[in-house]
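User: Fatty acid oxidation complex subunit alpha, Thalassotalea piscium:
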Amino acid sequence: MLFQGKSLSAELLENGIVEFKFDAEGSVNKFDQATFQDYKAAISAINQCKEAKGVLVTSGKSNFIVGADITEFIETFKLPEEKLIPWIKDGSDVFDAFEDLNMPTIAAINGFALGGGCEMTLACDYRIADTTCSIGLPEVKLGLMPGFGGTVRLPRLIGADNAVEWMSTGRAHKPEQALAVGVLDAVVAPENLREAALNMLNDAIANKLDWRSKRQPKLEALKLSPVESVMTFSTCKGMIAANAGKHYPAPMVMVNTIETAAGLDRAGAMACENKGFAKLAKTDAATAQIGLFLADQVVKGKAKKAGKQATKVVNKAAVLGAGIMGGGIAYQSAYKGTPIIMKDINDAALDLGLTTAAGILTKLADRGRITAKKMAGVLNNITPTLSYDSVKDVDIVVEAVVENPKIKASVLAEVENNVSEDTILTSNTSTISIDLLAQSIKRKDKFCGMHFFNPVHKMPLVEVIRGKDTSDETIAAVVAYAAKMGKSPIVVNDCPGFYINRVLFPYFAGFSQLVLEGADFTAVDKVMEKQFGWPMGPAYLLDVVGIDTADHCTGVMSDGFPTRMGKLENDPVSALYNAKRFGQKNGTGFYDYGKDKRGKPTKLAAQAAYDLISVEHKAFESEEIIARLMIPMVNEVVRCLEEGVVDTAAEADMGLIYGLGFPPFRGGPIRYLETLGLDKFIAMADKYAHLGEIYQVTDGLREMAKSGKSYFTTDVKTA
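Assistant: Predicted structure for Fatty acid oxidation complex subunit alpha:
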């Protein structure tokens, strides 16, 4: 053994081949500080071994290398840029040192080779993968760009245009795609990977393959003529500007880095990459997107833990109510492999539910995403019925009837008498108290809320709502079922609006108040979409949610929090509701909806909406519009954390990202708050405190600001 570390080893095999094996003590291989120390030591050991003739890079895990351990680097990213650049260079120098080994090298790639794992393979002369391989550079999803030579080596291997496409999208590629573009030299079956890699390496050692000329282009400038360079990078920049936009700086910094480095050798190009990476690491977008990744890990980790703790496994489900929502829930369960009974009281509703599921499947089939066999299998997993006889043996029931407490309570009581004693009952409700609904059933410990978002197949979030009598076993089983459905479940405690709607309606209240003061709702939508980054501005979102639904929810929130969320006089939402302008569902709301001559959907500001609101227009600065809408939302998120409605800042952020489309580049409401700065936010809120309680920050938030603590590391529950 030439070298044995905790993360990797270097062992001399026959014919002078050194096996350079990544095999960390944990479940996966990743680049952390300890691995880098081992990496340096192993390279030194190989350089000192006179018998070494070639290097075979392998993994002792089911995946090659999943990337860098971003958790170790977060604190380092806080360093000033001038200190960050040398730190990054220390890391990229190790990859250069491996590439400079005076012997041929080959990577035998199995499973994931992502980020730093992909860059490790790029530092090799040859790359051979098995059919399980998934390879790519996803750093852009963290607001970063490759930092271990990816922007230097990949363009010189596959061309600048292909490399930009790989890095700006961050997609992982199948082995056939990587082979076609030139990232891989061969693809083989998993059982043949080691032998094939050894054969190729032996050929290189015997000079049957010219490994030196294979390596050389990675050490030189890009082979692009001036005309080719202008055309390539102009096209790439145009595509990135159109797709990424101003809120995501990483793709443009990355392509500018490649362009600047195009005429330089490896050393010069690597210096450009070091500088570009440091620049991005200091951006708010990177901080937010890294935070988003870590928050997602928290949510997934809790779901995984629930799956292990669950004493009841859901193998068969039922949904009551077969409308669009019921059909969406049935589709999602069936698509992910859990058979489901779809129960309703009339055939027309069952037909609508089945049509909803079939429509989703047809679109997937038209795009080549699923086969006819898979489509048939999913539909066969959905059993429509008018009778309770079919639901007797199910493990879980999702009630999804009309949003009316009396009807829901009646249906839940009825179904409880038609299922076994250990069947879990859940209600898909967006506002009705779980504790209120629990009064209608006997086994309150086996009941909770399961709030899906529409359209079910697209929206990742499921709110699992715990009532005061809900057992931990029930919560664990429901969370595990939601995760099995492919959703991201977040457990919240029962309160008016639960978590998502509770924090959404102060945002809507801020919007309504602003409109009553003369703001043009189209101008507000434009600011919140184009500048803040929401997928829809508040007026458009209200139309999509449904003006009737929004008016109902406003009443629920007003009853629940009368001093903070009492209904506004002359509320524009109520004015539209009373005029039967219900939004997209009937084509009239804040906007009028229709189709143009080509059949494409149209959306035009409705004069009727302006007439109903009937106020004199007044211009507002963008900063005030953003403040007037976001302060109430962020304040309510903080209250939910303090009251224990939601458990952690990570879940608070992911809830709004997955449930409402909160701008990902801002990382969620708490990340946005901390990026803005608690003191600055408080000063901004105090400026508008006279407008009402929704603008008044909590004492807890003021204490957090004084102590300089973070919501991500502090438990702030006061209730």
